[in-house]
Amino acid sequence: MELVTAGESHGPALVAIVTGLPAGLVLDREAIDADLRRRQQGYGRSPRQQIERDEVEVLAGLRHGRTLGTPLALIVRNVDHKNWSWGMSPWPPAGEPAGKGTKAVTLPRPGHADLAGAQKYGLSDVRDALERASARHTAAIVAAGSVAKALLGELDVSVRGSVADAELERRVDEARAERDTIGGLAEVRATNVPPGLGSYATKADRLDARLAATLMGTQAVKGVEIGDGFALAALRGSQAHDEIHRDDERGLFRETNRAGGLEGGITNGEDVVVRVAMKPLPTLMQPLASVDLQTGEPAHALVERSDTAAVEALAVVAEACVAFELARAAREKFGGDALGDFTGAYRAYVERIDWHPRTR
Ligand code: EPS
Hints:
The chain is an alpha+beta fold. The chain has a domain at 106-352: Chorismate synthase AroC (Chorismate synthase, AroC fold, 4-Layer Sandwich), CATH 3.60.150. It is 30% helix and 21% strand.
């Protein structure tokens, strides 16, 4: 399974193409739209979310609600594009400049991709960098993650992201009052994950590395921790590992889960637990020092409408990232062009090992 996305924040639409899904997986449009809505909500989100009504459209790979085993093409339209139709026109715009995005952005924001993007790609308008770097793009990830959750659901695996930040609302209120922004922590937990997803064979196969990569690839994420993560560094070996037990009800199991469900880059049958740290959003109403790229003079960074916090959105996005990577790993382990081949291989495997899925 692979995921490719495209789309700018104020362009016509966001696009996700998912390849490698088995044929015969039932997708529920309402479930995907519900995840898209969850991503839009959350304390501290920008007024942009009142403009958007994120909904999935399917252009290919699905017939009558079932996957065809062919590339699945999803889009989420940007309603706000109507205000940017000149500024973000894919083709040279016709007529006089109108609406938003008509003036070049030359004041890069510290913490955003603005300056590095403009340098790397030789851009005179920072907008050419920031539009794709924007976290708006995560809507496409959530749509694809929702599809991955449907596949994992066939194995009774569930994945849920939540905010791991005490007092988020108070922190948002305080930051908003002071016209500032905040970051925060989110946690994703996947339950009923069978042992044996991922591999120690190569770095690229290690599922912990893959989870870290997909989460670090998410806007504003600056840290990823698996299980007890950084805290493990301070412990003795005798305190840090999860002892192995067995009973007839559960088969082999652990009493503790400091490893976050991953040992040697492979799932070990316990919950997969991952935490992500998000930096404070870099678009500030009281901007930091910058330099005007056109004149070379000191200036203040671009001020644009933005969120005060997006930690609750990150929890939903991180859930989608983890779900997609787990589904990929499950597809590698169990194969299956047809959904029944995939679930059949899973059942035969679980029969072979001494691990018992939780009763349904
Ligand atoms: C974002 C800036 C804001 C956010 C946006 C990410 O958008 P705008 O500039 O249109 O107000 O709301 O996130 C979304 C639109 C979204 O759907 O998550 C940025 O600069 O990263």
